[in-house]
Amino acid sequence: MNSDHNETNKTRWQRRLTLLGCFLHFDLSFMLWVLFGALGIPLSEAAGLSQSEKGLVVATPILAGSLLRVPIGMLVDRFGGKRIGMLHLAFLFIPLGLASQIKPTLPSLLAIGAMLGAAGASFSIALPLASRWFPPDRQGLAMGVAAAGNSGTVITNLVAPRLAIAIGVGATFGIAMGALAIVLIAFTLLAREAPRTTQAPRRTLPSLRDPDLRWMCLFYAITFGGYVGLASFLPLFLRDRYSLTPITAGYITASLSFLGSVSRPIGGIISDRLGGSRVLAFLLIPIAIAYGLESQQPPLETMVGLLGVSMLCLGLGNGAVFQIVPQRFQRDIGAVTGMIGAIGGIGGFILPTLLGSVRQYTGSFSNGFVVLALLAASGATCLRILISGRGRWRETALAEPQS
Hints:
This protein is an all-alpha fold. The chain has helices spanning 2-33, 35-38, 40-47, 51-79, 81-91, 93-101, 106-116, 123-131, 139-147, 152-167, 169-190, 211-242, 246-274, 276-294, 300-328, 333-362, 366-387, 392-397.
């Protein structure tokens, strides 16, 4: 009996330490993934970028990281999250080193941004590694806590603009390399692979012919794409629309990002109790309303409040989506997480590209927010129709509360 008790305690501690390691991995990676967005003002000024080019530069890391999530997820299923996670962090020294030495130009920013975007693939490493340690009724908590590492957005927007003014943009990338080294050591020491199940993962791509996978990709493109897209583009938006300084824009972006980050695990916990589909169906409505009101470009104080509603609900929605995923795709969770995360990240690429292009060609961001509102409203309508049927979506919406 003592042996069983000790084994239980050992497993419990391994689970907790792995969850912490996954959080740190995702947190640092998210910091680096949105670093171009946080430094978007000095980088765009140094390179002399146009409005559309600004949107493209801050969106390039988002796109690159999104596209890498599927192959990285498959590697995680095959070789394990810890091994791939360590290699992933080690690679990120390359773009940071280049960014600290090379003068910003449009070609150099796009090239380095594409490499730095690999940080976004942490999603396909940290979430599956943490998820495999937890039972089905605690997936919302596990996935929410691990993915709360998107709080790295908060840290980056608080610290990076001030560092860039104090020591320069190049030196700021050098500081990021020091943080990367610390997290690489911590992840190596903390993370452990969960005991393998008897059912081996398939080594093929998840198919978008699966209707459940298609819907999850769509909903995550709205929630996560909205969150990461806004977090990347808000410094430039606040500068261009309200003439704020880089530091002030960074502080506002950090505060708004914090709402979306801290609400993600809460969304997962609520979904564990009420059902992910039901929670998500509710959240898409205020998201659409907030986008619609933001299209009116109100005074700064009102705009910040509306953006706060958007980020809060987007974060809750992220937690709701990934409460559903492990229950439906446990066998291939690494590859499926990568697929859903990739489509979600592509949503994050589209948002700043859309807003930057609309601003350049119409002189206003308004029409861009109208498009976002229509997409969220369409998502809410589609999910309501799915829940009204008799399939899995109705089952997850009517999930019994967990005690």
